Amino acid sequence: PGMIVSDHGTEFSSNAILAWSKDHRIEWHYIAPGKPMQNGYVESFNGRMRDELLNESLFFGIDHARSAIAEWMEDFNTARPHSSLGYQTPAAFAETIAATGYDAALIERSAPQPVAQPAP
Q1: In the chain, how many domains are there?
Q2: How far, in Å, CA of 64 to CA of 24, rounded?
Q3: How far is 88 from 110, CA to CA, in rounded Å?
Q4: b/e map of 58-72 (b: 16 or more CB within 10 Å)?
Q5: CATH number, domain with residue 92
Q6: How much is the pTM?
Q7: Could you tell me the residue range of the domain that residue 70 belongs to?
């Protein structure tokens, strides 16, 4: 990616991750503290995944966790219509956009540019 937007969690503000992003020429932007709505699409996704999968599952190892997450993602992207995508699945919406030749970032229903603070 060219840019990562995150909160100020310690896993995203360590010197190691900031050095990695600099080495890979990836911009890092932080949302304002206490403003999860600045990264609403990600916060919504994380909440849905937590409620539907992570809080409901007991994983017996990393392979089991990877398999369950892959299965959940497949369902999320290919079987469930999303109201924000005109009741298409994300996969169908991506195919529709690809067929038009438009950049998905320019489509009205696509996620807006984040309002975030640049990394220090």
Answers
A1: 1
A2: 31
A3: 13
A4: eeeeeeeeeebeeeb
A5: 3.30.420
A6: 0.66
A7: 3-118
